[in-house]
């Protein structure tokens, strides 16, 4: 390419960099820097975050552990977690609904798991599902460090599409009063229909879905709005540390099989 042609494209490149600068920063923090640190340390970012929590957070205090993770994400390495803004929405809804049994698909490092667990009513139970064994090992340690035993929070390692059909028989979950979808947006619709098909959603159940705007779950939202079995509401937020990147949590209320 000649210098003249390269210069002709320069204004376009500058315009794109300015317009999408937040996305470029996110890409650098979540992919490039993370991959480099993984190679240099031999540890995953979640494992490094847990080491930080061990030395800076108060055991048995889930609120302090959550604050420590937020500090790590803002000042050390971007965690790609739910963050405090969405976390307040999640805790408020859990407290309002007071579910006797809750299900989380996508434990990740355990951040949203702690939010749900600390907002459960007395005697409430949370089952949380994580497909990656190494990530699940970190989350398990974080959950126990926060003071929640297996009677309150049970972590299941496996693929959601394989675990959901076994929830009733193997894990004694006959109904999920509240569900958080926080794993892969492209799997939200499939797993919602699996929960319906196995009669795990009672009438009035609340289904919450994170990241429905970024990276987005359009088929899931279209189904929820058009099938006639849900009342839908969208809570608009931004990504943690990237408020200019708009995201949201979808809140569905299940009316029953119809």
TrEMBL record:
Cellular localization per UniProt: Endoplasmic reticulum
Catalyzed chemical reaction(s): a catechol + S-adenosyl-L-methionine = a guaiacol + S-adenosyl-L-homocysteine + H(+)
EC code(s) of this entry: 2.1.1.6
Keywords: Catecholamine metabolism, Endoplasmic reticulum, Hearing, Membrane, Methyltransferase, Neurotransmitter degradation, S-adenosyl-L-methionine, Transferase, Transmembrane
Main location: endoplasmic reticulum
Principal EC category: transferase
Secretion signal span: none
Keyword Secreted: no
InterPro entries, A to Z: SAM-dependent_MTases_sf, SAM_O-MeTrfase
Top-level lineage group: Eukaryota
Family label: Belongs to the class I-like SAM-binding methyltransferase superfamily. Cation-dependent O-methyltransferase family.
Role noted for this protein: Catalyzes the O-methylation, and thereby the inactivation, of catecholamine neurotransmitters and catechol hormones. Required for auditory function. Component of the cochlear hair cell's mechanotransduction (MET) machinery. Involved in the assembly of the asymmetric tip-link MET complex. Required for transportation of TMC1 and TMC2 proteins into the mechanically sensitive stereocilia of the hair cells. The function in MET is independent of the enzymatic activity.
Protein name, as recorded: catechol O-methyltransferase
Organism expressing this protein natively: Bos indicus (Zebu)
């Amino acid at each position: 390419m000649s210098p003249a042609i390269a210069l002709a494209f320069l204004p376009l490149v500058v315009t794109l960099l300015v317009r999408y600068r937040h996305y470029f920063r996110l890409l650098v923090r979540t992919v490039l820097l993370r991959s480099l640190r993984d190679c240099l340390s031999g540890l995953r970012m979640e494992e490094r975050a847990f080491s930080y929590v061990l030395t800076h957070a108060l055991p048995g205090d889930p609120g302090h552990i959550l604050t420590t993770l937020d500090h790590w994400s803002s000042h050390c390495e971007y965690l790609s977690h739910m963050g405090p803004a969405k976390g307040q929405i999640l805790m408020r809804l859990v407290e309002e609904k007071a579910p006797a049994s809750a299900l989380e698909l996508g434990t990740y490092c355990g951040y949203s798991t702690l939010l749900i667990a600390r907002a459960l009513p007395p005697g409430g139970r949370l089952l949380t599902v994580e497909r990656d064994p190494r990530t699940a090992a970190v989350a398990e340690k974080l959950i126990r460090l926060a003071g929640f035993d297996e009677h309150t929070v049970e972590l299941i390692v496996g693929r959601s599409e394989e675990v959901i059909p076994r929830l009733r028989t193997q894990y004694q979950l006959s109904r999920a009063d509240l569900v958080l979808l926080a794993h892969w947006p492209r799997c939200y619709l499939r797993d919602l229909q699996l929960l319906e098909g196995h009669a795990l959603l009672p009438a009035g159940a609340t289904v919450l879905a994170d990241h429905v705007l970024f990276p987005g779950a359009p088929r899931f939202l279209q189904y929820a709005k058009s099938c006639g079995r849900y009342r839908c509401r969208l809570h608009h937020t931004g990504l943690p540390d990237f408020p200019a990147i708009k995201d949201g949590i979808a809140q569905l209320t299940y009316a029953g099989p119809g």
